[in-house]
Amino acid sequence: MSPPTPEPAPPAAAERTQPGAALELLVHGVGGATPCDMLGDPRTVRVSGDGTAAMHRRADDVRAETDPDRFRDGPVPEAYCWSNLTSGNGTRALWLLLLPFMVVNLAHWMRPPSSGAGRGPARLYGVLVRLVALSLTVLLTAAACEVALDLTAWQCAGTASCVESRSWLGFLSAAEGGWWSQPGRRLALAALVPTALVALLWYLSHRTWSAYEAQRPPRGEDEQDGRPALGRPGFWYGRRLVARLRAAHTAAGLLTVAAAVAGAAARHDRGGDTAGAAVGWGIEGALALCGLVVVGVVCRRGRSERRLDNRIDRALVAWLPGSAAALLALAALYASWSRPEWRSAGSLPGDAAFGVITLGQGTLILLLAAVAVRLHRRAPDPRTALHGLAGPAVAMLACALGGVMAGGVAQRVADWLDGPGTPGTGRGPLAGPPVLLSWQAAVIPVLLVLLLVPTVFLVTRTAHTARRLAPVVEAEYAGEDPDRVRTRRIAGVRAAAGLTDAAPALVGLVSGATLLLGAGALAGAWATGEVPGEAFSGAPAFVDGVAEGAQALGSWLVGLGFILFVTWGRRAYRDASARRTIGILWDVGTFWPRAAHPFAPPCYAERAVPDLAWRMSSWTGRTGGRLVISGHSQGSVLAAAAVWQLPAGTRRRVALLTYGSPLERLYGRWFPAYFGRVPLADLHREVHCWRNLWRRTDPIGGPVRLPAEGGKPEVDHPPLRDPVVYGRTHDHPLPEPILGHSDYQADPTFARERTVLLDRLPPALPLPVPQQRTDGPDDADDDPA
């Protein structure tokens, strides 16, 4: 690839009197693509953008606008490459550890449409999701406190046999009698670990806003009334919300650490030290008050979308984390007071903390489900995933992922510190992690067994569907000599592609089972106060053995899950191919802005959508030419979102070509308020012309199901044949592959439909150079969610 060159200067005024060339703006899908692959030329030049996301052209097409006669037979191809937004340098592999935050952020955008239900339920839905997200921050911080404070500083450092095999803990040993040997001082020192974790999350969130949330859209304050959500000026500009939520979550994490440190010292002082007890009550009261402020900040307001919200709540952003940090420092000083008689025994009371978090999450999920059902009943759509319950189901999965990570790290660290013993069973020096984590681990094997039923059902149904499709496939290739192997393979690919449509039922089943089993684990932990194997010790030997086996297997599975997280992230840090694989996950999960959790991986669309909208607006305004934006897979979602952001005058000069598109099949079903039937119909009416190509063998793309309306033809093209030919022909002497989700441009239909779209656009006319946009007042207007 040739070195990047700056974008050529705009044509002179005399040149703008000629009709401009047509432009095809190509947007790739998940997994990324190189400019050379997209443009079919090894010599490409970056004409705009940077090393993260950029527009590329073939070297011969850099100044195509100055010689439009060369492109009378087709448009000038220009490729937008955005894959480095999600799978660039190695540090982004660490985003894998932010998976629960990303998943709960998706739940925010799965809200059913609020048509006919008023703004109240929609606002309540957003508040509940943000509270679930806040609980995840507290949960993972509490897990770090469990490892550093309870297992290491309190249990291991307070046990001589544990310290003997861990020489690096010698200076903390109670037997040594040094300055750090007192339990409060050990806890204060160990608090540096969860504090560093919270600081790292704050730093990552703060650093990424400049590359994502700071990208301003091309439009000003026009066209607000009645616009779809994705067409609002501030939809892709979430700087203020992320800053506010970042302050609240950072404070929540620091307060969690402070409560763990101060709580242990306060409980000791209430056993006899009146002055210490008073100070402890005061600190705990201040922590509770600050926690209420954090909850209030999270509940107070959602996204500002109807206007460009440039303001930052600087006092709040600085004051809230600063106050929490000051309370943490005060708690550390309080715990460090000399208490020679204090000895650490057993474990810190983590059961109550994890139990309250689990109970709170379950309650919030149930409330969220009730609100989602009410919203869906006001505007029912049979295509909506899980009848509107997709958001609560995904939020439940986010909590489960958080629990797996929290329990996994606690179980594995406890096993490591306890040596040959088994934590929590009395057969080792450590009391072990909270009992609730053992109960949660015990239900994981049960959940896996339950998943075998739908797995077997789906495999059986897919095989049956493939057999049923065999005569259909042969009928579509009438005149060809039937080949049983070829037919079976094509039918099998089609049947497997239909598994995507079973995802809502599978997610609903897993989520519901997780909720019920989690409730059982919580009830078992609180009712017995023992690990599952010991709780059933008085039962028949079979029941006792099953309970103990489930707890042991679940503990290892939880620990294995956490190890896989770390291992996969480490491999992706070193291996570019593994990093691209993780990037595909982020391509799907981080399309949406960070509206619920500020520590989620950053939203790449807040960079990509303004990039595309700016390019389309500036090019059509400068040249007066015609433009077709063609997006594949996830690129079609970015293309549609960018078209929504265009001013009306620009949309009339733009055609939309989508292929392998999940716009309706995935986004329309899972995110009905933003890509449902009504928003997509609005996009069909607003854009000048739109065509969608799809295949029955595609597991991701599908039809958008928009009929002809207002003189505009149906959006969907009839399904493309895949493979193009059934057997060998003179034009295709070798067997043609089944393409599925790839290589749509290789089909002759692609070029024909692109030509039809360009012919339907208004003729290229000279247009005045657009004036520099100026922003209006920075008033905020909250989105319902």
UniProtKB/TrEMBL annotation:
Signal sequence annotation: none
Keywords assigned by UniProt, alphabetized: Membrane, Transmembrane, Transmembrane helix
Keyword Membrane in record: yes
Region of interest called Disordered, as start-end residue ranges on this chain: 761-785
Superkingdom of origin: Bacteria
Membrane spanning residue stretches: 93-110, 122-144, 187-204, 247-266, 278-298, 318-337, 352-373, 385-410, 437-459, 506-529, 549-569
InterPro entries with a match to the protein in the record: AB_hydrolase_fold
Annotated source species: Streptomyces kanasensis
Name by which UniProt lists this protein: Integral membrane protein
Keyword Transmembrane helix: yes
SUPFAM superfamilies on file: alpha/beta-Hydrolases
